[in-house]
Amino acid sequence: MRILVIGGTGHIGSYIIPELVAAGHEVTGLARSDAAVATVSALGAKVRRGSLEDLDGLKEAAADSDGVIHVAHRQDLLPSGGIDAVAAAELQIMLAYGEALAGTGKPLVVSGSIGSPGWENLGRPATEEDPALPGGDAYKGTLRVRNIVETTVIGLAERGVRSSVVRIPPIAHSTTDNAGFLPLLIGLAKEKGVIGYPGDGANLWPAVHARDLASLFRLALEKGPAGRHWHAVADEGIPFREIAEAIGSRLNLPAVPIPADVLMLPGYFGFLANLVRLDVPASNLITRQALGWEPAQPGLLADLDNGHYFPAG
Ligand SMILES: NC(=O)c1ccc[n+]([C@@H]2O[C@H](COP(=O)([O-])OP(=O)(O)OC[C@H]3O[C@@H](n4cnc5c(N)ncnc54)[C@H](OP(=O)(O)O)[C@@H]3O)[C@@H](O)[C@H]2O)c1
């Protein structure tokens, strides 16, 4: 298939392009700069110049393809408008894909968040059948628009697009994860001299290796039915305390509880305080059964033990 990848230069996209190329697809990556052109080419894809701001260009590129994978976001909007502004821009992009692909039955596979069905409201691991929470308060009110993006993508199935959402956990780990949540936690631990965890640290975090995540995107594109969520979780829920202890043991730093009553105060976690409280276990059963997805890479704790997150010096 001739596949358009939007976000192919990013952490996740840079695993998706080689995964698709290895499976025999003809891949085109969107690139907005000379550096992106070089990266996309080096990954084995053709290049199409364009940007997320150019909705007409995205529509044309989508219409020229047999299917689209979207793993990009307007992070430049974050400082001024927060995550809602990022998601509002993404909504327009999804509607543009919808116009380009309506009635074609072509696949559109888009990144979503494992927290979108909520957490305190569920009281059990989220499943692929749980819709995104309309109020979107999985991250304490910060994901309202993001959840509308997810429901919009799912809704495109009714307009003849084979659309689906791959829900990604907060930790997508790999040897090239330079800017994700783990590097942030590790940087914080080095700065503070301890690695903190919230409360008793029993809150559960799912995780996935970026290579396994890429294979799930490929499977969803190749054979996923329309209007479905997929759960990209290899570890379905690791107690946060165990993640902190694994980091602490590599850094020779103690893992310490940050009590709930001081968690939100300026102190250890700062702007991450809302995130580290997440308790978002998620099941991958339907994803594995429907798509035949089998994560093959090291789990999170084994990957931390591999040491690549802790270069010497
Ligand atoms: N990583 C996670 O743990 C995680 C968890 C949940 C959801 N997600 C979602 O998954 C998606 C990919 O995540 P990631 O970690 O791979 O992100 P990333 O490394 O930050 O990559 C972002 C991508 O978006 C592209 N991009 C940004 N602004 C653009 C613009 N104006 N025009 C064209 N391209 C633009 C970047 O291209 P340039 O190279 O040109 O900058 C890059 O390819 C995101 O939507 C993210 O929200 C990720």
A few lines on this structure:
The protein is 40% helix and 19% strand. With 313 residues, it is α/β, with parallel strands linked by helices.
Secondary-structure blueprint:
Blueprint: E1 2-6, H1 13-22, E2 26-31, H2 34-42, E3 46-49, H3 55-63, E4 67-70, H4 78-101, E5 107-113, H5 144-155, E6 162-168, E7 171-173, H6 181-192, E8 195-198, E9 204-209, H7 210-223, E10 228-231, E11 235-239, H8 240-251, E12 255-258, H9 260-263, H10 273-276, H11 285-291, H12 300-306
Parallel strand pairs: 1-2, 1-4, 2-3, 4-5, 5-6, 6-10, 7-9, 8-12
Antiparallel strand pairs: 9-11
NADP nicotinamide-adenine-dinucleotide phosphate is lined by residues 7, 9-13, 30, 32-33, 36, 51-53, 71-75, 111, 113, 168, 170, 172, 180.
Descriptive terms for the model:
3-stranded mixed β-sheet, 2 domains, globular, 313 residues, alpha/beta, binds NADP nicotinamide-adenine-dinucleotide phosphate, Rossmann fold, 7-stranded parallel β-sheet, 12 strands, 12 helices
